[in-house]
Amino acid sequence: MKKTKRDFLSLYVDGAARGNPGPAGVGIILEDEDRQVVGNIDKFIGNATNNVAEYTALITGMEEARRLGAKAISINTDSELLAKQLSGEYKVKNPVLKGLHEKARKALVHFDKVIVNNIPREQNKGADKLANKAIDAAMPPKSGRSFVLK
Question: What is the C-alpha separation between 42 and 114, in angstroms, rounded?
Fold first, then answer.
């Protein structure tokens, strides 16, 4: 079978929550081997913790990579917790995260090769921007307040 540029995708994933828990969103950027963006996802996920948002971003990104036909992926995250729980360096103790961790591990088996990079936040600005865009779009617009001054 002929190799395509989408056989290997780089995923930049980020989750954001305003409050812990609070309104949360995920942002994902998918790039092909030539670093061309082949997908952007911003999605509001309701009230969640930041770590739930990080896992949700990862799972959503892997589902999209699989849909696009990727056989190998590079996961780029600024979440130390996510990266170290995926590697097994950190245990997953939170019951909610355990379920998400298990779902992520099951999604990983669909790829022949998976690389996890724990990158600095500055290198993940695009995914962060998408996660916050999703929250902004779901939140009611802020309006001014009226009050009696005198």
Answer: 23
Q: pTM (2 decimals)?
A: 0.92
Q: What is the pLDDT of residues 46-82, one digit of tens each?
A: 999 999 999 999 999 999 999 999 999 999 999 999 9
For the chain, list the strands marked E by DSSP. 8-17, 22-31, 37-48, 72-77, 113-118
List the structure tokens of 126.
């695009």
pLDDT per position as a tens digit, 121-149: 999 999 999 999 999 999 977 777 777 88
R_g of the chain, CA atoms, integer Å: 17
Q: Cβ neighbours of residue 127 under 8 Å, at least 6 residues apart?
A: 12, 13, 14, 27, 28, 29, 57
Q: How many helices and strands (H and E) does the chain possess?
A: 4, 5
Q: At what angle do helices 50-67 and 125-138 cross, to 10 degrees?
A: 110
